[in-house]
Amino acid sequence: xxxxxxxxxxxxxxxxxxxxxxxxxxxxxxxxxxxxxxxxxxxxxxxxxxxxxxxxxxxxxxxxxxxxxxxxxxxxxxxxxxxxxxxxxxxxxxxxxxxxxxxxxxxxxxxxxxxxxxxxxxxxxxxxxxxxxxxxxxxxxxxxxxxxxxxxxxxxxxxxxxxxxxxxxxxxxxxxxxxxxxxxxxxxxxxxxxxxxxxxxxxxxxxxxxxxxxxxxxxxxxxxxxxxxxxxxxxxxxxxxxxxxxxxxxxxxxxxxxxxxxxxxxxxxxxxxxxxxxxxxxxxxxxxxxxxxxxxxxxxxxxxxxxxxxxxxxxxxxxxxxxxxxxxxxxxxxxxxxxxxxxxxxxxxxxxxxxxxxxxxxxxxxxxxxxxxxxxxxxxxxxxxxxxxxxxxxxxxxxxxxxxxxxxxxxxxxxxxxxxxxxxxxxxxxxxxxxxxxxxxxxxxxxxxxxxxxxxxxxxxxxxxxxxxxxxxxxxxxxxxxxxxxxxxxxxxxxxxxxxxxxxxxxxxxxxxxxxxx
Length: 518
What we know:
Elements: H1 3-16, H2 38-42, H3 59-66, E1 70-77, E2 87-95, E3 105-110, H4 129-134, E4 135-141, H5 168-186, H6 198-211, E5 217-222, H7 224-235, E6 240-246, H8 263-279, H9 281-284, H10 290-306, E7 309-311, E8 314-316, H11 321-326, H12 334-351, H13 360-371, H14 377-388, H15 395-405, H16 413-416, E9 442-447, H17 455-464, E10 468-473, H18 488-500, E11 508-510
Parallel strand pairs: 3-4, 3-5, 5-6, 6-9, 9-10, 10-11
Antiparallel strand pairs: 1-2, 2-4, 7-8
Helix pairs in contact: 6-7, 8-10, 10-12
């Protein structure tokens, strides 16, 4: 679940206006987990606040400085079982509450991933001014991500997500790639890999809370950030203040196989886009009906499977097409759909054997896919997934699963059910996965057509968090609702909770109506 997709969605709408085996069954009264005295050791550390820009080409740091942010590094234990041992640093940013007289506390924002850089999330205040008036907004690059002590996976791609293709031979090619990627993360990082867990990131968050001198921590998390937030409430429930989880991950599925149940939801989102494209056939020429547009997509996939499509300097084959479709379905706005349709038109031309150049909108994606350039959230996030939950090391398990679902999920099943680097990971998890189940009051925000964290899984998270209320954006085929969807009903409900502490009386819904321009 690529963090930058939610970040992009928020930014786009905003331009108009992203070995302790402890699995505690905590309630709101729990103050922490056994042995995690890193916060106690670090409670009185003095943070050295400084400017955020690190060099002339640091656009993120420049934007933070221009907004009046400060940056600092928080010292945390590498291994919380040995809190007085080796330490690492976690980079944070802060923009102070704009109305100090009404300041409530701090709001830490996580954009998702896993592996998403969050330092710049403190900039979201301009899109939620009432919230920014009441809270110091805190951005964080989680451990081993971005400016925090890093793990450098030596990859020539930015993501392991691929289709297994149509045959045993193409599946075997996936197996070989995943072995290579696992080895690329192991090189030079073996001493760090066991500690790249969500539980440790939650502990880091509590160190940050203590270092900032705050009795409680408020939190806004998207996508993977919802799992991180739920783990925090499980481990440190009494220290959680107001918590918003947007596009919640299914806690029972989260791990190396987190996309394994996504095929139907992605297909439904593709159909929704196809219906839009059919209504705009005069502009894109993909077909006059939903079925015709889907046939165009199928022809692209089949052509790429037979022979790689020549798109500029790149060769796009059947392993890549489902991925390129999937990552364009995070946002169901007309602007996003139009860009997606234009890209499919280019791919359709390539499938006919015509010479095409790389669309500007696809360049960053293809550069990352084929060279490993860019932010590469998946490259940073794979160590987290592999540390959180062990994957099956039996390659036949994955091939059988793909084959069993190939008829029902012909396009996306071989991608969502494919093997991952975690099957060849050199380190085994040092902790059992967290069992989510507590009564901390919080707000879960959902879109019922979400292709990335499907709605049934979001409801699993909601049921596990018995103190939560759920707000659902109906008829929305997107990932990320608050701020990103520009929906007045959603935004008002979240703002009211963060500012005034008012949760809905019960679960509620919003219709898919755009918010007025901010």
